Every structure is written in structure tokens, then in C-alpha cells.
Hints:
The complex is a heterodimer. Chain A has helices spanning 24-40, 52-65, 83-97, 116-124, 183-189, 210-214, 238-247, 256-260; strands at 2-5, 10-12, 15-16, 44-49, 69-73, 101-105, 127-140, 143-152, 155-162, 165-169, 199-201, 222-225, 233-235. By secondary structure, chain A is an alpha/beta fold.
Amino acid sequence: xxxxxxxxxxxxxxxxxxxxxxxxxxxxxxxxxxxxxxxxxxxxxxxxxxxxxxxxxxxxxxxxxxxxxxxxxxxxxxxxxxxxxxxxxxxxxxxxxxxxxxxxxxxxxxxxxxxxxxxxxxxxxxxxxxxxxxxxxxxxxxxxxxxxxxxxxxxxxxxxxxxxxxxxxxxxxxxxxxxxxxxxxxxxxxxxxxxxxxxxxxxxxxxxxxxxxxxxxxxxxxxxxxxxxxxxxxxxxxxxxxxxxxxxxxxxxxxxxxxxx
Amino acid sequence: xxxxxxxxxxxxxxxxxxxxxxxxxxxxxxxxxxxxxxxxxxxxxxxxxxxxxxxxxxxxxxxxxxxxxxxxxxxxxxxxxxxxxxxxxxxxxxxxxxxxxxxxxxxxxxxxxxxxxxxxxxxxxxxxxxxxxxxxxxxxxxxxxxxxxxxxxxxxxxxxxxxxxxxxxxxxxxxxxxxxxxxxxxxxxxxxxxxxxxxxxxxxxxxxxxxxxxxxxxxxxxxxxxxxxxxxxxxxxxxxxxxxxxxxxxxxxxxxxxxxxxxxxxxxxxxxxxxxxxxxxxxxxxxxxxxxxxxxxxxxxxxxxxxxxxxxxxxxxxxxxxxxxxxxxxxxxxxxxxxxxxxxxxxxxxxxxxxxxxxxxxxxxxxxxxxxxxxxx
Lengths: 261, 377
């Protein structure tokens, strides 16, 4: 079983983005998971945590793309959890569905923290790697092995990794548009399986108590709107801009011969 | 005495620039807390046969959380005299760690340099599977109140899992600020700059792990650091095995963006014919050229030059944005410390709400005038 961790993209706290359902990394994870499931002939299950009004669109998208199942965990008090509280819920869900390969986005587009995947790996005792560009399966007797390519720090590294594993996917490399469209969009637009119903779980079914994860509230820090509207100090001309940047030591001072001229 | 631990990435025989920047941040935090800075360097396993252990370390008490330091497991942890006085000392004692590295960490703000043995070959990539257990072991010994990583690919792989192992709070890509009560606050812009997430160290009843973007000036004026050596018997995760050698990533030519002090970034609003002007402006400012995702999709720049969430994070001092709207996905990958200059023909463009300085006009009109002002026309 391959699990895909998904979350609806938010344009601001508690407001889903209108123009985009998934962040780029998660779209990469969804595409890779569906392809891997097909190649390994394994079931794929999409998992999201949050209310139906927010997450069902994401899960329906995964089902349309070919995911075998979709599970949503919703309960009171799940919204304010930090990375580790959310990871506890996801880890319990992964154990509940029995997945040994877990794919997720490298980082969310809203906060870009990139902590949930490695934290889930820690909680389920799995190996993990971040910044993964591609995955291939490799048969090795009864063991599930994957060959993964990691792109980080200017190098392309290859690893063989044994399940259980959590792989955090990079977004696909941006390419000039050729008119053929985005492959992820194509994949998730094309109905492969008849959309089945989304299974709904609460903390009780996962063997979790709200109290047990409640201490992870407030640990993420406080979210405050940036006071504004802030406005740039608009320069009247190119010369004025350079003068201001020089005054603030952001641009080196003019050379003497330059000033003289 | 509280403990702030910094993971040091090496660049050859020296600490990386990102690591020194993180060490500088850690030094400033530790000074405000009255804490001790431990710079942790992961080294391939010690030569046990030549190592003589002199005395057990004095492990400082922790701050926050009220827990007490764990007693060291003698003789797994060793303390050595201050920086070796001769090359022979290093050859005979330290596990192939150059004197210069130790010296530079001392000058960069470390009170103590901790050499932690890990089952990693010199040419292996530092990821959680290879060095995570060793770092976690060092944290168990030292019980830091704060662990600081550079916000690099290494930090991104290791820091969050270490935080989960420690049950710690975690903040990524944050800048260090001082709160109204003088408290240490980790802050970062989120949701494309519309919100700021702030985590105050004083509010926590547990340790914190943070990654900080490179680009800050390293601390200077430190002195010799004491050297500690930990051999904790850490094991690598045998489920992860590197296959073959590393290859240069085709996007590697954009790496210069991560170290650049000045970046000129073009968006979809820049005409293809005007793109060379951005390159000239970047050259005149001694910087690099970046691009938004939309610009890369239009084929104006290679993917290697994309700046944005999921692509490349940057932390320049000056960030000049030309013909870009300033979307969340773009500006979320720019350090909040960067001074943003917006250049756009549309005075209502959202980028002017994120920028400190603005100039209204078309790129073709404005940039040549800027080049002339800079003496580079």
C-alpha cells in the first residue's frame, strides 16, 4: 500500500486558494505516487487531515487521478496543531491503513516548513529522504526496495531505500510551456477509477485522544497579519532610486570620476 | 548554563558560509540568553586506537523545560584540551579535522566545538540516514534548549526529524528577532508575506530546533574554542544505501543565487527582448539573475534560475524584482531580511506592497537609466 499525504492549498489562514487545489510539491507527490502504484501494482491511498469542505476536493482529485482509496481525518481541535501534532495524526492513519511507502510534498506553499514528512517518518519508524526528484521500484525478493533520485545542494544523488519509507517530493522542474499542458493536471483530470466515496475517520478510530495531541497546540508560534498596507517608497526617477539605495548602503557609492562627470 | 547547539556543515576543510552564518545567529542568541554555544561537527568515526581519554566533560545544565542533563556514558564522551598546539596533536588526536576549521569556529562564536563520530564516509551526503543518529545522540548528551541549522538541503533533511525525535518545537527559514521584553523570537513571513509566524523561545516549555537562512554576517572576535569529542556508537540507517556517485545537478548553475548578496529577478512582465537588460543590471550591481516560475515557463530563463517555494530559497541583501507580481510562491522563498526594490509599469502591482523601494516604468525604459546611474551603460 502506498499512502499519499495531501492538503488543500490555503491562500491565507482558513481560506482555500481558488486558483490552485494543491501546492507544487504535493502535486509532484501525487503524480509520483500514482505512477509508482501503477508500476508496482500496489494500491494507493490518499490521506488528508481537515474538514470535508476543505479537503474533499483534494481527495476527489486524487481519486479521479487513479488513487484506490481516499481517507479524511476530521475531528475537533485538529486545526491548531503544530507539525508534530499533525504528524501524530498522519502516522496513526498510515498505520491504520497499513501503508509501507508514504509520499508527501517536500514543503507546503503557504508556510514552506517541510517538517511533516520527516516527523511522520520518525513516528512510524521509517527511513526518510527529502528533496526527491524521481522514484523507481526495484524487486528484491520479498523486500520492497525503491531507487530514488535526490536533487540537493547542486548534486544529483541516487539511493536504494527499503520500506517502510517516507519520501518528500520536490516539485517537477519547471519547463517552458509547449501547449501540451501540465502532466499532473492531465493525470488528475483524466478519470481513471470511478470516484469512490471518501472514508472519514476521527481520532477515536485511530486510537488517539485529543488530549494526547493537545499539547502540540501553540508550539507552532503565533500567526499575525503583517500590518499594512505597506507601500514601497516610490522613487521619482532612476537617479532618485540609486541615490536612496546608496544612502541606505545597499548600492556602493559612486566612483569619484563618475561623480565628477 | 544554557546550551545552544549549532550543526556545522563543512565545505571542504572549512565551515560552509551558511554554517558560519548560522553560528553567528546562534552566538547572538546565546549571548542574549547567557548560554554556551556548541558547534557540532560530524566526522567519520574516530581512530579509537590512538585516542586517549582524559576526563569527562562538564555538561552544562539546560534552560527551559526544567529537565536535568543526562549523565554522560563514560567513556563514550571525551573532552580534550583547547585547540591543539601543534600539527602533531591533530594528527595524533583529532579525527582528521583541520585546525583551521576548529579555529574558525572559535572565531565565529563557538564556545565549544563538538566532534561527533558518525558512520559516514567522507564523500557521503549528510542526510538523516547517515548522520541523524549521531546528531540525536549529541543532543541527548548536551540537552540543548535550542538547535540551529543552516537552512540548506542538509538542514531541510535533518532538522525536522531531529525536532520530532526531541519532541521539540520547529521553525524553518526564520530570522532571529528580539521581542518587546528582550526575548528571542524566531520569525518568518508566510502566506506570501501577508502573515508573519512568530515563535518566542520564552513561550516554549520544550526545546526548539530552527533553520536560519544564510547570508548573515558571521560573528567575529571569538576566541579559541574548547574541543569535545563524542563517540556515541551511533548507527546509520541501513535501509538507505547510496547507489553510485553523485552527478552535478543540471540546476546547479543556479546555486550562486543562494550565496548572492544582490539578485535581480525577472517575472512574466519582462519582454524577452528586455531580459538581457536584467543581466546587465545584475552584473552592474555585482549580483545574480533570478526568475519567477512564470518567467521560466515563458522560457525567459532556465529552471535553474527559478526562485520560489519548491524551487530555490534566497537570502540576498538587495532583491530587485522586475515585472513580477510578487506572488506568495515567489516572495515566500525570499528572506524577510532582504530589501526589496520593485520595478513595474503598473503602480498598483501587488509587489509594491511587499517592497521597500519602488520605481514605476517599463523595464526597457527604466533599466538603461539605472545602468547609466551605476556607470555601467
